[in-house]
């Protein structure tokens, strides 16, 4: 193939990438409904809906981390990263931010378990839990946010005669593979942004300040370019987080 054709192919590929980026950014500028107004979630603070913590006042944001208490590393790291960002904010910003942790493992994570787990962090975080028999609402809520998760069973390593014992152990040993990010929701239940955990605490704090200023300036305007929903397709899913 001639150098001229290679250059033309390269320019065409570059143009397609630019078009895809522009399309994604244009689609990401509108907040979208994530928390249905009729949905109440059991939590460590009682039943919550979108504006419970803000008491219906404008200019508030909830920052939600999905995970589970048996997570060996990613979930504690996510909460610790948010904690470090929280410590960089002033009192006014903190008063308008509401950290939340949504368990993706309601079978093991009861509300008392969530309370004990979250008390280890210097962060006023509320634990959210939908009953394990109510998978439909959990799946609907996570899909609205762009959260992906699935249960991963332990590897089959025992001989057949130990199958029953393995099954019992598996009930406690399974893992949850899930999306890793901080999901920012306003008091009207709209997703405003998806923040990757690859950002530093300083970057997270700066972004949260910007989002707070945005909703304070125009809390009811859908034209505010704050949400980055196009990032949902690229949110990493942990491997046994």
UniProtKB/TrEMBL annotation:
InterPro entries: SCO1/SenC, Thioredoxin-like_sf. Disulfide bonds join 71-75. One of its GO terms (molecular function) is metal ion binding. The keyword Disulfide bond applies. Coiled coil: none annotated. Keywords: Copper, Disulfide bond, Metal-binding. Residues 150-169 are annotated as: Disordered. Cu cation binds at residues 71, 75, 178. Residues 150-161 have a biased composition (Basic and acidic residues). Belongs to the SCO1/2 family. This is SCO family protein.
